[in-house]
Amino acid sequence: MTSEEKTMQYGFSFDLSRCSGCMACAVACMDQNDLPEDGLSYRQVTKLEEGEYPSAQIHYVSLACFHCTDAPCRMVCPRAPFSGTRSGA
User: Fold this and answer.
1) Cα 51–56–60 angle (5° rounding)?
2) Which residues make beta-bridge pairs with 82?
3) Mean of pLDDT values over 24-37
4) Is the predicted pLDDT of residue 89 greater than 50, yes or no?
5) pLDDT at residue 7 in the model
6) Main-chain dihedrals φ then ψ at residue 45, nearest 5 degrees
7) CA distances from 32 to 29, 70, 75, 84 (A)
8) In degrees rounded to 5, what are phi and psi of residue 76?
């Protein structure tokens, strides 16, 4: 295994129940990658609605490339929905 393969992040898991939709991850990603606020974004936070009143629920899903080794989106989230392993999986 090369040193590049050892540091590459292949992905990480996302706990749907922990995301509050605060968008801190999206802002950190845009800042890290010098992206304009109104342009391309590597990360999207999507709102999913299910059920009907009175038992309707809203869930947020943070979708990204999942390849940053030291992903700023993981570090800024106050609810820690992301997890990964030292092997990059």
Assistant:
1) 95
2) 14
3) 87
4) no
5) 57
6) -110, 120
7) 5, 11, 12, 20
8) -90, -15
